[in-house]
Amino acid sequence: MTVSPYISLRSGLDFILSDHTLDCPRPHPARVLFDAPRLEQLRELVSKIRYRDWKVVIVDEEGQGWIQVQTIMEDSQGSGLMENNSRRIYLCPEMDDMFVIDVARRLIVEFEMHESAEFFRMDGAQVFFPHGSNSQPVQSVLSMRHRRPDEIPAL
Amino acid sequence: MDMRGSAPGAVDCSHSLADSHVNIPSPLHDLDLFLRNHQLHCDCGSTIPQPLPDRRTEEIRNLLKRASYRDWRIFLHDNPDAAPHALAISFSPQPNETDGDGIRVHVCPAMTDEFVVDLLFEMVKHVEVKLAHSRFTVAA
Fold first, then answer.
1. What residue ranges do the domains of chain A occupy?
2. Maximal CA-CA distance, chain B
3. Which of A52, A105, B3, B80 yields a CA-CA distance of 20 to 30 A from A20?
4. Which one-letter DSSP state was computed for residue B27?
């Protein structure tokens, strides 16, 4: 068994989305538009999700539906409370309610794992960095045991 | 728990499992996989606590003092499960409880400092994911 040099921050979200893409009769990633009543139904559905004081929202971008988690939380760098949003995930009209709830749950789990990396500390300093060079969130962080000696904080 | 195909309506997700009935990767398996990988490449080869020399015990004790995660508590258990000179680490989100909703893992003498830090992070992730599953609900 090969040992990955990375620690995963994945929740299985991308897996179920690609699974959907394979099964869906609509072509993906073609732009798939929703009718307004279905988007309203999805808004009502996600408004029933309870998770801490976070919000799951449906974003309508000219008929394309997206789902996103929004929250206000403590900044890991100590600059107080800040608005923090998850990545946006496209929705397809072929996704049923249970699938959308599953997407929301995995989006939340992914968000929590990202924050775990932000708040884990050695000697008060962050050692796992869940952002890429373009500052976008990444899906895995480099493990300590696979770093070059100069990349390891003095342990 | 994969909810696709479930009956619509109120959904209780408090007992969510790790996608055990479908072949979807779950972060709840990450810690198991991490420890299994260690066992495959280590002479210890089992989950039975192995004795650690006093010097290594002290080094791990010092390493753990330097790790932190929010207000969670990290504990080092001497002689876990009555195994002499063995160690176990636990991470608890309840600052005043030894285990609480946390998790306990045995330390192997072959684990390096770098490995122990990765292990601590996998433990944090595991507990956070479990908490996320238990907190996630959908109202009727």
1. 12-121
2. 57
3. A52
4. G
From chain A residues 56-75, the ones with a CB under 8 A of any chain B CB are none
- What predicted TM-score, i.e. pTM, was given to this entire model? 0.87
- Which residue does chain A place closest to B132, by CA atoms? A109
Which residue out of B39, B121, B135 would a mutagenesis test of the A interface target, given it has the greatest number of A Cβ atoms within 10 Å? B121
Q: What are phi and psi of B95, to 5 degrees?
A: -55, -25
Q: What is the ipTM of this complex?
A: 0.92
Residue A56 burial class via C-beta count within 10 angstroms: exposed 0-12, middle 13-18, buried 19 and up: buried
User: What's at B4, amino acid-wise?
Assistant: R
Please write the tens of the pLDDT for every residue from A40-81: 999 999 999 999 999 999 999 988 999 999 999 888 888 889
Interval A1-41: pLDDT, tens? 567 899 999 999 999 999 999 999 988 876 778 999 999 99
Of the candidate ranges A2-11, A74-83, B13-22, B39-48, the one whose mean pLDDT is the lowest: B13-22
CA distance B129 to A128: 17
Q: What is the pLDDT of residue B46?
A: 62
* Residue among B8, B26, B9 at smallest CA distance from B17: B26
* H helix intervals, B14-84: 30-40, 54-66
3-state secondary structure of B129: helix
